[in-house]
Amino acid sequence: MQYERIVLNEPHASVEGLYDERLSFWNIDDRFINDIVLKWTDWHTDYLFHGFRDENVRTVRFPYSRFIVDAERLWNDPLEQSGQGIVYKCFGGYTRLVPEEAEAQLLDLWHWHQQRLSGHLCEGALLLDCHSFPHEMSDVDICIGFNEDWSKADKTTIELAVNLFEDSGYRVGINEPYSNSETPASPFLYQSMMLEVNKKAYMKAGTLQLSRDKRHKRSVNELMEKLLSLLLKQRNI
Fold first, then answer.
1. Measured in Å, how far apart are the chain's first and last C-alpha atoms?
2. So where are the chain's domains?
3. What class, spelled out in words, does domain 6-236 have in CATH?
4. Inter-residue contact 121 to 184 (CB < 8 Å)
5. Contact criterion met (CB below 8 Å) for 86 and 70
6. What letter would DSSP give residue 153?
7. What highest taxon heads this organism's lineage (predicted)?
8. What would you report as the CA-atom Rg of the chain, rounded to the nearest whole angstrom?
9. Confidence (pTM)
10. Where does residue 179 rank: exposed (0-12), middle (13-18), buried (19+ CB within 10 A)?
11. Do the beta carbons of residue 211 and residue 55 sit within 8 Å?
């Protein structure tokens, strides 16, 4: 469990672009904002996962709403069949018609984000895929996800994360309610692990405000500190 760099990926943290006629194509009303955008945006991930001014930690935040482009979907994603691939065509009963030329431009944004991620990764890096999820999706407080392939995070890293959150009183799910983790194409090997936080663990019910419970922030900080200390120890050997 020795990493050359930690890269934080935040693909769903923004709401920008929804009112831009060149990007959106949604029929935006109060229900769309309240039931779709507010529910499914990863609020406050900058608060949850940031705070480390260290050259060994890089953050890549997609600046547009996931309802403009889902920067984390796979190319030829199976969810294309249900209209929820890289460029959503439907969501929660809403549909949008995206002109072919506009869709090509939106797909360019996906490529841009993938390239930015790849540009910050290096051989032996750890990508932390940073997300949150609506409380009604699961009783799990913290979801830790990974792929069962070359990119799977080290067993010790996974156990470290599980133990830290469980010791803080959280119920931890392994690939539950969500599974897998982002793996942009790169010419070298690195590891990837997703951290999904139930919104009820850090937000006040029915609002977009942070709760007064700081356990999650402390747990994330401790996890990052342990990973960084191992990284620095390796470099000093």
1. 14
2. 6-236
3. alpha beta
4. yes
5. yes
6. P
7. Bacteria
8. 18
9. 0.91
10. middle
11. no
